[in-house]
Amino acid sequence: MEALQRFESFVERLMEGSFARLFRSPIQPAEIAKRLEREMEAHPTISVGRTYVPNQYEITLNPEDFSEFEPFRHSLEHNMAEFISDLASERGYSLVSRPRVTLQPDPSIPRRGIDIAAQLSDEPAAAAIAGVQAGEPEAAPAEAPIDRTHAMPLVGGQRQGSRGVHPPSAPPRASLQPLGGDMAGRDFPLTKTLISIGRGLDNDLVIDDPRVSRHHAQITFRHGHYLLRDQRSTNGTFVNDQPIETVVLASNDRVSIGGFELVFMQE
Questions:
Q1: N or C: which end of the chain has fewer CB within 10 A?
Q2: CA–CA dist 167, 172 (Å, integer)
Q3: What whole-number distance in Å separates Cα of residue 23 and Cα of residue 26?
Q4: Interatomic CA distance for residues 68 and 61, integer angstroms
Q5: Which of 138, 34, 32, 158 is nearest to 94 (CA)?
Q6: Per-residue pLDDT reduced to its tens digit, 198-228
Q7: Are 184 and 190 in contact (CB under 8 A)?
């Protein structure tokens, strides 16, 4: 994933600076970036010919964790916004304005906790999108953002409270069942709206097989369906022996991750 690689390169350069020896946070910047990716994927808004994703993200940390990021907070916020912009472009999503990411402390968040609130900001543009969904002509996005924000319909969970957002029902129960190796006979439930699959230890489903790329594929739940997307892997991703880039999964589909076979099951 090019967007994540560019962000990780920024973090590596940052860590080479003089402050690196003082950085003691148990939360790594790349961990926050992965959470931002999941929030973006979980909250699409469908318009005519476009899929809009949130452009405003509030990241809330425990004050002790926040204090570790404060010396380079603004640089991190800027590069996380660039990460969102690059990621949206890579995946064919639209943004009503340049993404904005803010870090803030909250004592109600436990240590190592990360709370992210994502929304589509800039009310005139949001209203235009809603009008298109209702059958009205699509208007150009407003050039100047305003202070008020408007929460758009969400797909996936979101913190409730003063934002007035109520998450919809959970996705249907689904799982992956490996067909061979030491993992055969086990069942891996898909408990999130974005599941990363690969050989790297930072994946949600880690497959220790040399044929599998470090970040091989992803399964996302969007618009009532589970989608499997290849992440430009070396040995490819196949469904029922057919190579795929992105495909909607159906129950009993046989999935090959670089040659490692699993069965997708959905209730």
A1: C
A2: 15
A3: 9
A4: 10
A5: 138
A6: 888 888 888 888 899 989 999 998 878 899 9
A7: no
Measure CA 213 to chain center: 19
Q: How far apart are CA 199 and CA 208, in angstroms?
A: 5
The DSSP symbol for 177 reads: E
Q: Please enumerate in sequence order all residues whose Cβ is within 8 A of that of 126, keeping only pairs 6 or more positions apart, or say none.
A: 96, 120, 150, 152
pTM here? Answer: 0.48
Can you read off the two tokens belonging to residue 128? Answer: 């235009």
Check if the beta carbon of residue 86 is closer than 8 Å to that of residue 36. Answer: no
Please report which confidence band the pLDDT of residue 193 belongs to, taking 50, 70 and 90 as the band edges. Answer: confident
Other C-beta atoms closer than 10 Å to the C-beta of 23 total 15
117 backbone dihedrals φ, ψ, rounded to 5°: -110, 120
Least confidently predicted of 3-17, 51-65, 109-123: 3-17
* Confidence grade of residue 160 (pLDDT, cut at 50, 70, 90): very low
Nearest residue to 235 via CA among 212, 204, 214, 201: 212
Please report, for residues 21, 160, 176, 231, the alpha-carbon distance to residue 223 in angstroms, rounded to integers and kept in the order given.
45, 21, 20, 21
Per the document, the length of the chain is 267
Q: Which two tokens stand for residue 94?
A: 């639209």
64-109 confidence digits (pLDDT tens): 989 888 878 888 888 888 888 888 888 888 888 888 999 999 999 9
Cα separation, 113 vs 261, in Å, equals 34
Tokens of 9: 């390169």
Give whole-number Cα distances, 8 to 15, 36, 90, 95, 166, in Å. Answer: 10, 14, 17, 23, 33
